[in-house]
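Protein entry
_____________
===
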Amino acid sequence: MVHLTSVPSDATARQGSVADGLEKVRFDDPAEDEGVASIYGSRFAAQELPQHEMPDHEMPKEVAYRLIRDDLTLDGNPMLNLASFVTTYMQEEEVEKLMAEALPKNFIDYEEYPQTAEIQNRCVSMIARRERNGHINGSSEAIMLGVLSLKRRWQNKRKAEGKDYSKPNIVMNAAVQVCWEKAARYFEVEERYSFCTEDRYVINP
């Protein structure tokens, strides 16, 4: 499993990852009129991409793009990712264009980008009104907040009715994503499961 790494020490950062012998290979600098058409035939092919320190000298933007792009080919294909609940593949070109056009916006500054904030509010409202019972679809954080919200709402209702509110529980399909189990345990909510059968894979009210 791939994990984010820690910041290396100075000693670790000095340890290069260039293949043995490659540092001895010498390439001529491309002439001005050659551009970077043959990136792997230039001196940049013998230089590792920076890992720990900002380099002292720049490289042409075309070279940086090609080297990083080639590195990214080692990633999986999001179109074929059927094993993760964070699939991000989209077929609509217009969505990708909107995302690219919005990249320069620092969205935390709502006052500077009020219409972007308004569009966000519309999306949140649509999802919230569709899932009226506190049902959450999304990231682990959303699940945590959803379970906590359900617990508080249930407790407040029980308090108003003068009933015991010390033993909350949540009914879940046994095939739920593991974060639901974590949320229940973190917030001291009893877990109750409806198990799948050969012909039923969801909870049937």
About this structure: Helices lie at 10-13, 61-72, 93-102, 114-130, 140-160, 178-186. DSSP finds six helices and two strands in the chain. The mean pLDDT is 79.
